[in-house]
């Protein structure tokens, strides 16, 4: 694991301050696509929150690159508005003034050599004026089709080349290709410009506290790890449900679909963290090795028609209002076969998990917004209770709630108060908001800071990307020749075929 730079001595700083090893050294960040929704809602507020928490150095510089005819003052106003609307910490004039003094803006197109030459001059000037020390990260918050253009311009202009005792890094937003072939092609382009240890592929789910808590729960507690195997676990369900439609994302979403959009990255990463063996340490290489072992061991069902399901939301009523079906959304062709719901049954072919199915599902216009991992345990081999007094007893489960209410729920059987021995399911709940006084940082805060520190454990390696596509490609290829997705009612939990997939195994989906 890379070691964070040691902050300068400060006699006024409390030595017990746990931020000390996590304060970034001198650096600048360039955001391409700074006018986009991701930048306004997530990236710019996260940068401000990092500064407000005292985790960015006073010399930090932020440069925006876009085609808009803006001055640096115009750019500062855009950042200001985004921070005011979306920041998680209170607005501080002192923090803002310090941060805004490092703002710069460069206008240009991605194929404009002169604009990138100006950007190179701007970065060099920041080193001299702000003391950023030649350390710069480049955030590609742009459509995937623009990746090669921007990367080649960074190479041509010399921006990707670090100077002595300095670093240059690139941050790439998903999707990392749309299949294995395109992922390999993208990696060829990236590796021509940046070495692998300077490439940070953003999967923002890995920055969420509850996702990281999977590792803490498993490996810090003797209570859980002995039963984390096929002797005790019946199955695992990983759910990412959204209660909204595609909105204005038709240009991106159509032709991509739920499986490529979130299962290939978010959900398979959650599977890997849930199923991995204990790493030697929590440095990047150790974590990657264990995750890669899991992804390499994932096996699909022999009959993809029975072990997968896909759907497309229809028009109907949801939350008291009539909503459009997928084919009625702006920009969607009436004959589109892009799925808005995807589910699949996978197995991990290892000694620990042999015979334990992992059910993954993701979709839009479902019952509510929730992301969770449910580890469902086998029933007790013998219950010394009458059926009438234990009829409501289900299977024990540990549920990691990733969003929106971050925490962990443990479901187990307990006696109902009274004179009879009646047993019923109860839940023991841990919530981050109740258990800790510290505010949980937003995922992009953690990930941006990790880039500036050169700390890569939470970023997928190229090999993980390739293994994920190897799992998904046979499924999407099968679906392309299997007709249209099954319609499902908005506000429901997906198509009937997804329920049938579990029913064939004698199981059913959890109601989150």
Describe this structure in words.
There is one protein chain. The protein is an alpha/beta fold. The protein folds into two domains: 154 residues, Rossmann fold; 298 residues, Dihydrodipicolinate Reductase, domain 2 (2-Layer Sandwich). It contains 16 helices and 18 strands. The strands form three sheets. Strands 7, 8, 9, 12, 13, 14, 15, 16, 17 and 18 form a ten-stranded mixed sheet that branches.
Q: Give the mean pLDDT.
A: 88
Question: What radius of gyration results from the CA coordinates?
Answer: 24 Å
**Estimated share of beta-strand residues:** 15-25%
Taking the alpha carbons of the first and last residues, their distance comes to 36 Å
Structural class, by secondary structure, is alpha/beta
Number of helices: 16
Q: In CATH terms, what is the architecture of the largest domain? A: 2-Layer Sandwich
Instruction: Summarize the main sheet.
Output: 10 strands, mixed
What is the CATH superfamily of the largest domain? Dihydrodipicolinate Reductase, domain 2
Please tell me what the overall shape is: globular
The helicity comes to: 25-40%
Could you name the CATH topology of the largest domain? Dihydrodipicolinate Reductase, domain 2
CATH class (first level) name of the largest domain: Alpha Beta
Q: What's the β-strand tally? A: 18
